[in-house]
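HUMAN: Forgive my ignorance: could you write out one protein's sequence and backbone structure tokens?

ASSISTANT:
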Amino acid sequence: MIVSLKTFGVFWSFGFFLVAYSKEADEPFLKGNKTAIPEPQRPADKVSAKYEYVYTYEDSEETKDDKRTDKRTGKRTGKRTDKRTDRRAGKREPPPANEYSYPYRPKFPAHPSLGYCKLQDFKFGESDRLGKGGFGQVYKAVHKSGKTVAIKHTLAQSIKDKPNHVENEETIHRILQNAFIGQLLCTMKNSKNDIFFALEYFPGGDMYKQLLTYHPYSQAVLAKYVAQIVLALRYMHSNCVVYRDLKAENIMIDENDNIKLGDLGLAKYDCDNELYNLAGTVEYLAPEVAGKRKYGRACDYYSLAVLVYFLQSGKLPYRHKKDQKDVFIKQLATGKQKIPSTGNAAADELIGVLADYDPVQRWSNVYVNFDKFKKLSYFNGLDWNILEEISANQL
């Protein structure tokens, strides 16, 4: 027992000596001389150069080349990076083998009429294709339950630089539950990271195809269609959504001959009218959008003015050659491209109200002074109460 106490005393003395020595060695570092003790390697420094590239998102800001730095190493890389990803770089796993992968999970994988949506439960093929859009293709499909739906297929490759695009469309679809807006049923994803939306199917097709077959429409039918579009837009705008792609090809006709706005791929949630980027179909652009000036929900009413002309006359108010697209957009931005007369006084009056060059006045004409708008001669004989009742019955 005496030997053990002596042994303990020796070890205790030796430990005290080591602590004292360590404290003395640390003094230069504690006094600010950081070169005395090397800084430990951070986890981020161990990330392989193979995974140095990070995807940039739609809302990331690009900085000047000479100011771009990698926060992990402090070196100037000249590469465009996403700040949110950089901060967590040391904690992220390397991307999967599929180069078009991105972290997306369907938010709405089920629907009461379909149950849990599985891609193998829908039958469709190339012969069932209904159309093609900017971000995907649309097919007619039959679910195992017998329900016919439209499947929008978006390739992962086509959205690899804007992974939030699909999530934005998915979320906005679920915000907008209205009788005059096409409904999203459920969303799916396959092993290749392609995205599939199951949407309402409309056997009547879109307004563009209908117009080719049935033009000219009667004035009563035109008034009903335009009024329903106005109510759909007002509902969107009351929920701070800017459509940005109103055109005949994106308006569906259901079995009751009512309209349904579809394809919300370019729709944007914005309550403050602070959008700047050029988006939409060129012939339908409002001047402020074409000029990349600050814009908001009023741009949709200008697009409606173009659509009214198209429905009335069977053609767009103006055309441009492909190699003169930039010149045409500049003319739109400055107001030099004006919508010509349709030859119908009531239609021209409506177009004048919708296509006011000043977006503030345009917004006031339609959204603020709606009671006055409903009394325009274009809508004579139309029962707005019936349409508003249908619109109010949200799904």
